[in-house]
Amino acid sequence: MNRTIPLLAALALAACAVAAQAEEPQAARQLLLKQDVTLPATTVQAKVIRVQFPSGYKTPLHTHEGQGPRYVVKGHLKVEDNGKTSVYGPGEVFWETGAAMTVENVGGGDAEIVIFELAPAH
Question: How many domains are contained in the chain?
Fold first, then answer.
């Protein structure tokens, strides 16, 4: 009996199994922000807040209870935070320091941001 045919069949089956695994959908992971954090207390209150800005809107100078990452969902926002000015667009993440700041919608249409806030628990 020729042993080459069963060996080739086994290799073909293995190749088909590998190809099938390659076609399965995979989760994509992308690091958007990495920040060392000194928490304001041993217990913090974490908040997730969605804010929508109409075209041309600018916040007054303000602070939030806590620092944390901010994710821009849509639009373009000019952020003045702790003496630094930057413009962020959809999919970008920045770190808000908790210092006095302003946010201005400079994109021409509506803008939206998700705030992840880490504040001292009350």
Answer: 1
Query: What are the DSSP calls for 45-108, one per residue?
Result: EEEEEEEEE-TT-BPPSB--SSBEEEEEEES-EEEEETTEEEEE-TT-EEEE-SSSEEEEE-SS
Asked if residue 30 lies in contact with residue 71, where contact means CB atoms within 8 angstroms, the answer is no
Query: Do the domain assignments include residue 34?
Result: no
CATH number of the domain enclosing 73: 2.60.120.10
Identify the DSSP state of 28. Answer: -
- How far from 57 is each of 52, 71, 76, 78, CA to CA, in Å? 10, 18, 11, 11
CA 53 to mean position of chain CA atoms: 19
Does 50 fall in a domain? yes
The answer to whether the pTM exceeds 0.85 is: no
Q: What is the pLDDT of residues 62-117, one digit of tens each?
A: 999 889 999 999 999 999 999 999 999 999 999 999 999 999 999 999 999 999 99
What is the Cα–Cα distance from 119 to 107, expressed in whole angstroms?
A: 29
Domain contains 97: yes
Q: Are 77 and 103 in contact (CB under 8 A)?
A: yes
